[in-house]
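Reopening this one. Same input as before:
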Amino acid sequence: MADPRLKAALKAGDFVVAPGIFDMISARVADRMGFAALYATGYGTVASHLGVPDAGIATYTDMVSRMARFAQGSTTPVIADADTGYGGLLNVRHTVMGYEAGGVTAIQIEDQEVPKKCGHTPGRRVIPAEEMALKIEVAAEARRSDDFLIIARTDARTTLGLDEAIRRGKLYAKAGADIVFIESPESEEEMRRIGGEIDAPLLANNVDGGGRTPILSAETLKSIGYNVAIYPAIGFLSVAKVLEEAYGHLRQRGDSHGLDIYPFSGMNELMGFQEVWDFDAKWARPERKQAAE
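Same output, byte for byte:
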């Protein structure tokens, strides 16, 4: 079931910073950090799971089990990317039911045409606003708990302009979205206008490494009307950089000496091996216990 803490944090006026997770190692590391939420990124999850671009290739079947694993393997509320809801209205209903049953706390649905594209890449096209509003109504009706939050994202800014993006944001909030996500504003001034004109909780997408939107501090975002900031790429971009350096070191030198890496003992602890060892010790046959001693 959805975790009520995220909704409570927003109601209390807390600003929520959510790091991007893309596999269970990133989820376990982030889960220890004390964040109010984790953001299960579609781009990173598709890349790590399938090794393909986030361009509408992954299906509901590909994603629902991954998102459920993130939620069930974390103690922190999980916000999960669900692309377009993977189809029409019936697909949206099915997606909401599946994500909620998996333990996700908030689901993000966008108004792109199928196949969708990553929000900070070119060539995105959107469906009519009224069709998306129906998706939001269906999503809100399909959820079993009010603690399960609906995030409505519009990609209209890049192709149709800021006025249309704001109009859509207002429409989606009226249709039942708990949080509005205007993707890819291109300046702080645009973000201030969004914060001033949309009377609903707002999400900012901080894409490290070259996104279209300026990355503002949590303090600034809160002051201009935002409530949530996601950092979807910070995890997988950091990991890719470190892997490139480590593998390059190994290829060039033929050994791993001198690398600053995570300790193997720490990884064992992170993955929960101590519980396995404790279990084995408890249930080992007497002769095996004597051999171990």
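So the earlier flakiness isn't reproducible anymore. For the record, The mean pLDDT is 94.
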